[in-house]
What does this fold into?
Amino acid sequence: MLTIAIAKGRMQEEALALLTRAGLRANETALASRRLAIADESGACQFLFVKPADVPVYVEHGAADCGIVGRDVVLESEADLLLPLDLGISRCRIVVAAPGAELFANGFGMLRVATKYPRISRAHFGARGIPVEIIGLTGSVELAPALGLADCLVDLVETGRTLKDNGLSIVEVIAESTGRLVVNRASYQLKAERMSELIRSLSEVVG
It folds into this structure.
């Protein structure tokens, strides 16, 4: 049996729909019960429903053989995982946004960056030689520049409407993010046949 960790929240429904098309259907009654670990109807795998940030942890440490989670989460986690398949779901962008597009024209000595993605932010600005002070927030990141708490933000956006409604513009796109299949390195070897079957089945329905 394969154990598949699925990110709860906005990606869960799309991930389950994709798995169903690939032949792995979660029991509707079990889903409605809000249980966090359920088997698929064929008994071929078990689904774990965990917070997005925890998916790479479960998979890297072998509590799950593989998982479905956004590329943004994988980049931020820096977990040692295999990423054999882009599932093309929950398409978003990791962006730098600020009240004005002239952010880098002002010659900041130290840029204050509000974000839920400190590692991605440090790596991005570090590669450009821009010193940053990271202001870690877990929600309502758009408020930080408006209130003077930060010069800009790094966040995940889908349409950009929330940024616009809060007086912010996208200055840079750091990376595209979609749902990815992530795989534990040991499981990829020890359960090679089952893993290859899963990757092949998902590949056939990704479109």
Remarks:
- The chain has two domains: 2-90+178-205, 92-176.
- The mean pLDDT is 93.
- The longest helix spans residues 192-205.
- The radius of gyration is 19 Å.
